[in-house]
Structure formats: structure tokens, C-alpha cells
Amino acid sequence: MIIALCVINWTAISAVITAITALVAVIALWQNKQQIKEMRQQWLEDRRARLSFGIISNDGLFLLRITNVGKETAYNISMTLTGDPIDKHYSEAVKNSYARLQNRPFAIEAGVSKYFYLSRIKSDMDSEITLYREKFMQSDINKWLDNNMDSPLHIAGTYCGRYSIEESFCISDFIMEGSMKIKDELVASIEGIQKGLVLNNKQYMPIQKSLDVIAKKITKEE
Known about the structure:
This protein has seven helices and nine strands, in the order αβββααββββαββααα. It is rod-shaped and about 110 Å long. A hairpin with a 2-residue loop joins strand 6 and strand 7. By secondary structure, it is of the alpha+beta class.
């Protein structure tokens, strides 16, 4: 069967093809827009402020560490801290400092850490400890640690106006009994350089005496 070309409505076919092309273009444009939106969201997510919480042992103290591991400043940080390590702390001054922290938003720049006092570490020497004009015996602090090393510390709050904080951990989660604090390579290298630059007096005296003897011999020969 032969269909006469003059019978075909080319105008209608052209209109259909144009409509299909326009629809494909709209779909492609929408997909591109979604991809750009997702890429922007991913870029913002990769760069945003991120808070990391933990407990460290440093210079005879247990400290709560809050680090901004993101790439932008974490501002308007507002949080509450609860749990026996805070509520039953041996120092009223420390409890009050955490209470003030809950009522005072603060900020942490990218890559920066802030440290908050938790407690002294354990010690076998039962000496008197002074903290914020309060006096404690080391044995009392040891007892507090025995009761609270495994007690959870709860942290809740927000930062940057849209990110939430929900953390719960114990001192023992980060501080293992018998573990040791190791200096990193940079600190060890710097200390090695300092030892090389500073001459001990006990080392200096024999060297000075030797120089004096050599000087006297040279003087006699002259």
C-alpha cells in the first residue's frame, strides 16, 4: 500500500517533534539543576563546621576536649552537660563553671580545640590539692574517679543555628588503665633540638677547664 506524501500532516508531526524536544530539554535542565544542587549541598557539607568531643589526659589532668574538625568556624555553640561526672563533681567551682558554660554560647575556629577541666588523674601520693581556692585530698579525688570513670557524661545542644549535638561517653572510653601518653614526632624532635642547643653546666665546666689548660700551654711556649 502506497501512502501519498501529500496526505501526511507534516505540520502536526513537526509540532510533536518540537514538543518532544522541548520536553527532553526541560527534563535535562531539571536533572542538571538537581545535580548542581546536590553538588552544592555536598560542597557545603564537606566544608561545614563539625564538632568532635573527647577526654584526654594531659599534664596530670583529665580534660574535656571539644575540637572543630570542620573547615568553617563553629559559632553560637550552645550546650548542656549532665551526668554524674558533672552533677556529683567534688568541686563546686567546677560544677559552677560548667553551669556558666551552658548559659554562654561560644565559638571554635576550624582546626582549633578548647579544653575544659574535669579532674586530676589518680596518684598514690595523698597530698593536698588546691583548686579554685577549694582544698581536696588526693585520696578524695581518687575515690571520685573510682566512682565516675564509667559514669556517662551527656552533652546536648546546637551550633551554627542548625546542627545538633548529641554525645554520651565516659572517661574510661578514652582513658585506658595502663595506657601511656606518647609524644608525637614533632614534639620529640623539638625537644631534641632544645637539648642540643642548651649546654648543661656540668658539661660546660670540663670543657672550660680544658680550654684554660690549652691557653696556659700556648702562653708558656710563647
